[in-house]
């Protein structure tokens, strides 16, 4: 959000944020018998500034939050913010926390919210049985109804609890017998949590997807499987230069797709995974060969092909070998006009500049 005023200049009206030390805020919450609403932001976070300027100043939002919470805003890269990042496991910005007077986390949401959504989040935080802490207690007490699990997973997904989500799906859904597993309720959970359900999709859903066809529309099942597998394959490109790239998982998925010749779009998923693997290994010539195959054999439907190509070419732009980058530019320039959606063309122009060393 270039040119946007600093938060202090935009927060003239709206939510009233309390001043003082973190200890003071906890004491104030105790005296007033309220939760703390903690807006976790950084100076460089664009959506944090959007929240401050357009959402926190909304009259309905301000009225609700000023009535029900002790409101605190904090730069998480300064002072006590650095400590709280570790304590509450903050991984992205903006992050919105609801904390009780004992400093215990009651609810957690990462990401931007519109005014009505922010009010709905606050309403959830005020219900001890339905907020994050309440769901954790219900789960620990043995509650496993599908709708409860579905809502719990929704909350966990916004709290960056990926490993816990995978554990819940694997244990609580994977352990169901066929009569309880192949139901609309279980499909709803799998459909909404495709990335966390990859292992279950591979081991139990895909080999027996006809059993879900009997209780859910076939098209919906096929689209849900495709969405999850596409996203998983693309994640290998996104994570190519990160510690979150897992070579063993990459190998296992390649073997699976190679064995699934009847699986729609298996070739697309394989091509994407190979692109991510070669990027991770910095084998840029191999990366470009895979991209050429993606274009040549018309892999990917239009809405995913242009993104895969763009993400991958941006990694290629990091290569120090100008000849490799030149080949990347040539590949980009040779793309058929129909390959890139109109709204994505500015991104490709920026990628070409990166390949040319102009950005």
From TrEMBL:
Residues 1-127 form the Thioredoxin domain. Pfam families: Thioredoxin_2. SUPFAM superfamilies: Thioredoxin-like (SSF52833). PROSITE patterns: THIOREDOXIN_2 (PS51352). Gene3D superfamilies: Glutaredoxin. It comes from the Bacteria. InterPro entries: Thioredoxin-like_fold, Thioredoxin-like_sf, Thioredoxin_domain. This is Thioredoxin domain-containing protein. It comes from Odoribacter splanchnicus (strain ATCC 29572 / DSM 20712 / CIP 104287 / JCM 15291 / NCTC 10825 / 1651/6) (Bacteroides splanchnicus). The lineage of its organism: Bacteria, Pseudomonadati, Bacteroidota, Bacteroidia, Bacteroidales.
